[in-house]
Fold:
Amino acid sequence: MPRIEVDVNRCKACYLCVNACPKKCLGKSTVISKKGYFPAEMQRPQDCIGCKMCYMMCPDVAITVIKE
Amino acid sequence: MTILAKKPQSLTDVPMHYCPGCGHGIVHRLMAESFDELQIADRVIGVAPVGCGVFADDYFACDMVQGAHGRGPAIATGIKRSKPKAIVFSYQGDGDLASIGMAEIVHAAVRSENITVIFINNAIYGMTGGQMAPTTLVGQVATTAPKGRDPKLQGWPINMCEMLSQITGAKYLERVAVDTPQHVMAAKKAIKKAFENQVKGVGFSMVEVLSQCPTNWHASVDQALEFVRTQMMPQYPLGVFKDEEAR
Amino acid sequence: MTEKTLRKGNEALAEGAIRAGARFFAGYPITPQNEVPEYMSAYMADAGGAFVQAESEVAAINMVYGAAATGTRSMTSSSSPGISLKQEGITYLASADLPCLIVNVMRGGPGLGSINGAQGDYFQATRGGGNGDYRVIVLAPNSVEELGNFPKLGFELAEKYRMPCMILADGILGQMMESMSFNFDPIDPNTLGKLDWAVDIEKNGRPKRKVFSYKGDSLIADVLERAKRYGLMEKTEARWEERNTEDCDVLLVAYGLSSRACLEAVNKAKEEGLKVGLFRPITLWPFPSKRLNELAQKTKAVLTVEQSLGQLVQDVKLAVDGAAPVYLNAYPAGGQPDGNSILTAVKSCLNGGKEGLFDLQEHAGDFAYSCERDASLGMQGDCKGGK
Structure:
C-alpha cells in the first residue's frame, strides 16, 4: 500500500501537492511547523494510489512516496 | 518497502529559500533527477545566476560557481573549455538571460558551446521585488510598469526560444512549463534531453521553463498557475523550437 | 632559459604566458594589444589550451572567471577602455578569491581617448575600478624582457594569494621590438599540483566545492580575512628597482615606459654633475612604500615622472610621508617623456623653479569658465519626455 511522507521542515505550505492529488488525499495540517507554516499532510491514506503527482509538483522536494 | 519517489541525490539537504509555490524548486529537482539518472553527477559543474537562483549553489550537490548577472553562459564557456569532460550548466532567470545577459546567451549559442542552459521565465524580476522584465507581458503590472507594460513605452515581450532558433549554433531549444504534473513530466523529459545532448556533444541546448511567481505577481498559488496557463502560454507557446542531433 | 631573440612586446607577453602554463585565454580586439589574442589564437591550441574570441570584454573576463574557477591558469588582455569594461569581472574574481592574469596595454584616455601608449590607468589598476574593498596585484614591466617573464611571476603570485594579477603595460612597450630572453623553462601545467578549492570533475566523494561571490552575512569576515593577505603582501611582496639611489639629490620615481626616459635623464644629469637617482616600483600594488620612504630621507627632493595627470604621485606622497618635497613631472593622455624634459624638471626641483613641474592649481591659474544655457539661442521647447 502506497503512502507519502511530508518533510515538515521543508514544506512551505503552497499546497501545490494538495491540488495535484487526483484522489484528493492531501490536506492542510492544523499543526504549525517550525518554519511557521501549516504543512501539507496525508488525510485520506486509504485512497493514495502512489501516483507521485504530489511529489512531482512539490517545489520544496518535501515529499517522499513509499510503497509498503 | 520501496521508495517510489524521493529527493534526488544530486540535491543537498539545504532547504530552499524560494517563496511558497515558486517553480524554481521543481526545476532544481528535475535537473538533479536528470544528473542521477544519466549518472553524470560526478562530472556536473553548475553556474548559479544573480537573481532568485543566486543560492542555487547551495542546493545542488555538484560543484558550483556563482558569478555576475547575465554572465552565466560566458562563465560556463570558461569552465567547459577548460574542462571539456565536465557537464556544465548555466541556470538563469529572464532578467539575467534575456536582458543584461543577452549578448552572452546569444554568443554562447553562436559558438554552439556544448553546455546546457536552463532558463526560468516568470515574466518578472523576482529577487529585486517585481520590476518589469524583458519577458513581462503586455499589460502586466510591475513595480517599474505601474500601469502595466505599455508597448508604446516599453516594447513587447521577447521570446527567447524563437529568437535563438534563428542561430545555427543553437541545437536544442524547447519551452516547457511546471504548472501541472503533466507539464512537469514533459519538462523533465526536455531537461534530461538537454543534458543528454551535452554528454553526446550535440552543442548548445536550452530549455525555457515557464514558471510561476506568486509573490511578485501578487497572486495566490492557484491564481499564479492560472496566469501561466491563460496569460503566459499564449505569448510563450510550449513546444520544441529546435532539435538537431550531433552537428 | 632561452637565447636572446628579437620579439615584439605583445608577442613576448603572449609567448611568456603560454610558457608560464596559461591554458585559457579569452579576449576581444582592441588596439594596441591585438597581437596578444592573435598570438593566442595561433598557438594556444597547440599548447593544449583554449582560445575564445569573446563577444565583449565583459564576456571575456567572465569566461576567465569560469576557467579560473577550475584551477586552470587563465588570462585575458585588453587596453584601457576594454579594461574599464572588465571591472565587473575583476571585482567578482577578487571576491571569489580566483587567481588569473589580466593584461592592460594602456592607451590614452579617458573614454575612447587615443591609441597612443599612456599610463592613465594607474588609479584604475591600483585602487580597483570595480566595487568594494579589494586589491589586485599590479606588475609594471618596463621592457620586452619583463613583458615576457612577468606572466609566470603573475600567475605564481595570483595563485599564492588567490587573487587576480594585472600586468600594467602600455602601447609603446606592447608595440616595440627588443632583444629578450625567457628566464624560465616552459611549464607544463599538467605537472602542477591541483588546487584544493577548484571546481572539478573527479570528485571521488570529497565535499562539494563552491566558487561564489555573494557572501551575505559572512561578508565582513570574508573581507577582513582577505585584508590579512593584503597586509602580508605589502610586507613581503613589494618589488622595485633602484639606480644611483644611494647618493642622490633628486630621486626620480617612475614605472614602466616612463622609467626608461628617467634613466636617460639620470645619465644626462651625471654628465652635468647633478646627482639624480631612479626608484622604479615594479609592483604598483603592493607599492614599495617602505623602501621609498627610506630613500626619501636621504634626498633633497622626490620627482615623480608619470604619463598621467597626478596618479602615481599620490602613492609617492603617501610613501614619502613628508620626508622630502614631492614634485610631479606629468605627460598625460599619450604624451611621452624624454631625458631632456625630465632633466628640466629635475633642475626646477633643485633651484625652486617651476618649469617642468605640474601643479593642478597653478595649471588652472586664474582660468575663468562658464557653460550656461543661453536663452538667446532659443528655448529647449521639445523637452516633454515620453515617446
In short: The interface with chain C takes residues 12, 42-43, 45, 47-48, 50, 54-55, 57-58, 60-68, 71, 74-83, 85-86, 103-104, 106-107, 110-111, 152-153 of chain B (CB under 8 Å). Residues 141 and 165 of chain B are 29 Å apart (CA to CA).
